């Protein structure tokens, strides 16, 4: 897999997590621990994307 393809894949996962977090936070009985874990996953993906983008420049 090329770096660009990996960046796209990670970007898709990042957007999906963003949508999941949005849905989770709109429920009256929001599980704050789950939201925190999702946000950490999203942050890790963003860090991976940033690192890979740095390799392409």
Automatic annotation (TrEMBL):
This is DUF465 domain-containing protein. It comes from Brevundimonas denitrificans.
